[in-house]
Design a protein that fits this description.
Elements lengths: L1 H16 L6 E3 L6 E3 L3 H18 L25 H13 L3 E2 L6 E2 L1 H10 L7
Antiparallel strand pairs: 1-2, 3-4
Protein name: Zinc finger protein 475
InterPro entries: ZC2HC1A/B-like, Znf_C2HC_C3H
GO molecular function: zinc ion binding
């Protein structure tokens, strides 16, 4: 009985020590995680950087501007489902990737140029 109580107390101690990460939001442009307050600062800067990088690409690699995914509030108070918002943002960020004409792997357009310099077609068997 005493052993069971000690085990329960120890388990409670371990659970109390678990540190919860603050909630994060995924950027729909770059796919990185940011805090819920810093995402509003990051997104305009990320979009500006995206435009600068996109304008430097050749015409065939240029992409349309990414659109912020729309997620409907799930509660009457207007709160958003953070998981659904992050899922939509992740999909949007992944849609920015461009496939390699040779191997089919996907890259950001500026990285695709570097990749294609070393990508070789698979030998026919």
């Amino acid at each position: 009985m005493l052993k069971t109580v000690l085990i329960l107390l120890y388990n409670c101690y371990l659970q109390a020590r678990v540190v919860r990460r603050p909630p994060t939001v995924i950027c729909y442009i770059c796919g990185r995680e940011y805090g819920t307050t810093s995402i509003s600062i990051h997104e305009p800067q990320c979009l500006k950087k995206w435009h600068q990088e996109n304008d430097m690409l050749s015409k065939r690699l240029r992409r349309p501007e990414p659109k912020k995914p729309e997620v409907n509030p799930v509660q009457a108070k207007g709160f958003y489902d953070l998981d659904a918002l992050n899922e939509a943002a992740w999909i949007s960020a992944q849609n920015q990737l461009v496939p390699c004409d040779i191997c089919g792997r996907t890259f950001l357009p500026d990285r695709l140029i570097v990749h294609q310099k070393s990508c070789k077609p698979k030998p026919a068997t």
